[in-house]
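Supplementary Methods, section 5.1.

A reviewer requested that the exact input to the structure prediction be made available. We therefore reproduce it here, unchanged from the version used in the analyses.
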Amino acid sequence: MARKLRIQYEGAIYHVMNRGDHREDIFRGDKDRKLFIETLGQACAKTDWQIHAWCLMSNHFHLVVETPKANLVDGMKWLLGTYTSRFNRRHKLFGHLFSGRYKSLFVDGSGNGYLKTVCDYVHLNAARAKLLSAKEKLRAFRWSSYGEYLQAKGRRLPWLRVDRLLGEHGIPKDTAAGREQFEARMEWRRASEDCEDFKEVERGWCLGSEAFRKELLAQMSEQAGAEHYGRGIRESAQEKAERIIAEELNEWAGKNRIWSGIENWNITTHLATRTQTEK
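The structure derived from this sequence is encoded token-by-token as follows.
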């Protein structure tokens, strides 16, 4: 059966999203949302995940997760399976809760703004979905990590890592002044939102530099099998084909230069011999 290839490596950052089966609700109320956050915290304790951002909507969720131990697949299997069991038990249901395989987008963690883009996308999700009125601040939406960023360190969830996102916003320290600056920047971002820079988050398979993309394509080329599919796999195959063509062209050009050199040498030798003879 065809399936997407999951590339894993130590320190990888992913934007992960999954929806309810048939787009049905995966949270029927605040108790379910609290249950998911509790389960996510347990998953982080088991896997050493670091969460940079999260948002819970009615029928889907978003996570920006960093995996120090290259264990996204095992961690997501535990998280989704455990939450499904607990949700079904609580509501006296059975069967699938989530729709197929989760979507994961690779995020370049080089510090060049890619993490900021994807975390801003997650934190602005409620505003884009019109769950907040124009007069309400972003902090009014309870079910995202945005409000946690505005809390003092001792009051926020222990598995939420804030330093990298604050740094990409140009905020060097997690202080009261820094958190005020972060809130002001996010409210400005919301008011002036241009969705152009979010298109790759919504439609792409990686968010990063060209060098980052090529490195991922190389890994995919090595690990992909006949059972795998996806945009990254197609790009990997195209990249490989382009590389082979380039190598063949370079080889042909090299041979052409060699033959050209031989021909020039033959002509020069012939002329020199002829000159000597005519003398």
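The two ends are 81 Å apart (CA to CA). These observations are discussed further in the main text.
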